[in-house]
Design a protein that fits this description.
mainly alpha; hpI Integrase, Chain A; three-stranded antiparallel beta sheet; two-stranded antiparallel sheet; 15 helices
Length: about 350
């Protein structure tokens, strides 16, 4: 290493001596490693990470991060560089997508910092696009019934969803998951997309996702009838729902062949299966179910997720709120605000 002047050499020496004393010194050779190389190591760094999460992060890296900064040295990225990336993502992606891409980038630099490739992450105090959860279509009982019937043998999936189950949890249900005596379902497994789009079966990712839920009697009967038709009611390990060929469900195939056809047939083209969970949360709140129970049924780790993202205000609850407040605070006389000098109209 050469310097332009004695002063530059002394400044470099002083900086490195201070860094050594404070424990923040980083070998300059490590900071010159390309981000693409660091990203490969990061993807393999946590064996506990689920296949679906790895596949999502890999896709974000390949599509949005590495084309922009993959060839740059890990130590060359500044906070300004990160902010520029986020701002550019915000121009072409929804706020939630930009936030997800930033979360991936932040995790990458946290890994670089924890492995002492850089002294500190540039992902600090970054301005993110504000995310407003979209209003989902909330279905009533008549709409649910029509949709369920249009889905044929997969109709019970609609009602399991509005009872609080995710698609992957429903696809992972086995006969032994259902307790017909106690009228409950145990969520202990789920099917999700892993690397290269392959479906994998694994335990739910959080403790709150592993739960036992009560189901109404009519839904248990609906499920029993479905299993009897397939002659699997006495086979504990049989999946509750399978493809026409008897294989485990693959989300992309099921969505294309079952869901999109059914929602189009009943005039709900923009409805997503995940919207049914919003119907579940909204109904629980609307009917006065306490937030802890609602959180448990939906498998949320944080009750704020239940309220902030999933539960929506309906005209019914809004009118009920207006009536409650109105009845409590109404004046003794409804004419109290009127000027007695002003006639309301000609006398009859």
């Amino acid at each position: 290493m050469t310097f332009d002047s004695r002063a530059s050499a002394k400044a470099w020496l002083a900086y490195n001596e201070t860094s050594l004393r404070t424990g923040t010194w980083i070998d300059p050779r490590l900071q010159s490693i390309k981000i693409s190389e660091v990203a490969s190591k990061w993807l393999l760094s946590d064996p506990r990470k689920r296949d679906g999460s790895v596949a999502r992060d890999k896709s974000i890296l390949i599509t949005h991060i590495l084309p922009e900064i993959g060839n740059r040295a890990i130590g060359s990225i500044t906070k300004s560089d990160v902010q520029t990336l986020v701002d550019n993502w915000s121009l072409t992606s929804a706020p939630s997508t930009a936030q997800r891409q930033y979360a991936c980038l932040r995790s990458l630099f946290s890994f670089a910092e924890s492995t002492e490739l850089i002294s500190h992450s540039p992902c600090q105090s970054i301005r993110l696009p504000e995310f407003f959860p979209r209003d989902s279509t909330i279905l009533d009982n008549e709409q649910l019934e029509v949709l369920s019937k249009s889905m044929g043998e997969y109709g019970p999936m609609v009602y399991l969803a509005v009872m609080g189950l995710r698609w992957g949890e429903i696809a992972g249900l086995r006969v032994k998951s259902l307790n017909f005596l106690n009228e409950t379902v145990a969520i202990t497994s789920q099917r999700t997309r892993g690397l290269n789009g392959m479906m994998v079966e694994q335990a739910p990712k959080t403790r709150t996702s592993r739960r036992i839920l009560s189901l109404p009697e009519w839904l248990m009967e609906m499920l029993k009838d479905s299993l009897l038709k397939r002659n699997v009611l006495d086979k504990p390990d049989a999946l509750v729902f399978v493809s026409p060929s008897g294989e485990p469900l693959h989300y992309s195939n099921w969505r294309r062949r079952v869901w999109l056809k059914a929602t189009t047939d009943v005039g709900l083209e923009n409805l997503t299966f995940h919207d049914l969970k919003h119907t579940a949360a909204t109904t629980l709140v609307e009917e006065g179910v306490d937030i802890k129970t609602a959180q448990q049924r939906l498998g949320h780790a944080n009750p704020q997720t239940t309220l902030r993202i999933y539960a929506q205000v309906t005209s019914r609850t809004d009118k009920a709120a207006a009536k409650i407040v109105g009845d409590r605070l109404r004046p003794q006389s409804h004419n109290i605000w009127r000027d007695p000098q002003i006639s309301s109209g000609p006398e009859i």
